[in-house]
Amino acid sequence: MLFRSLKYRVAVFLCIVLACIATLTVTLRWASQAHLNRDMANQAYLNAKQQLRAQVAEEAEMARDLPRYRQLQQRGLIGEENRKAWIDHLSYIAARHHWQPIEYEFDQPQIVKDASSGLQLSSSVMRLHLLLMHEEALLQLFAALPSQQLAPVIPRKCTIVTTQELHHELDAHCEFQWITFSESKAAI
Predict the structure, then answer these.
(1) CA distance 103 to 83
(2) Where do the H-state alpha helices sit in the chain?
(3) What CATH number is given for 83-183 in this structure?
(4) Residue 186: its pLDDT value, please?
(5) Which of 11, 105, 111, 120 counts the highest number of beta carbons within 10 A?
């Protein structure tokens, strides 16, 4: 009986030890999984924090650049080409200097560069033809072209031919490059 009682006690003891080992093994696995989950959560938190910092910095940069962007937009540098405004401006210049109307021709805008900023740089050729009395009138034209409301134009070439017409000694053909920025199709 003693032997049976001892056998029974050893069996119970072994069952308890096995149960403790099983509990310890499960607990260690759960602890390991908890550490792994904690590390993943910390990494996700750090990534979210970094993205938030980048977003806040980008918003601050946009807020800083917005007045300049609006100013360029008002000048006609950013946005669609405003050909009507240029036509009105050329008519005004001709009337102010008592010239014959300035003849004009616009080419279709060509995309020069699609910028990563979401803006694409476009260029159009604007050709002007005018009859002038003297060379100074051409300089007056160059001085009068810049406008606060119009996108910039860059003189590319001018050909001046002497004519025998009454009241007009010079026939000028000028070519300008018209620069604008517009929102890239990819950014929309």
Answers:
(1) 13
(2) 2-74, 83-96, 135-144
(3) 3.30.70
(4) 53
(5) 120
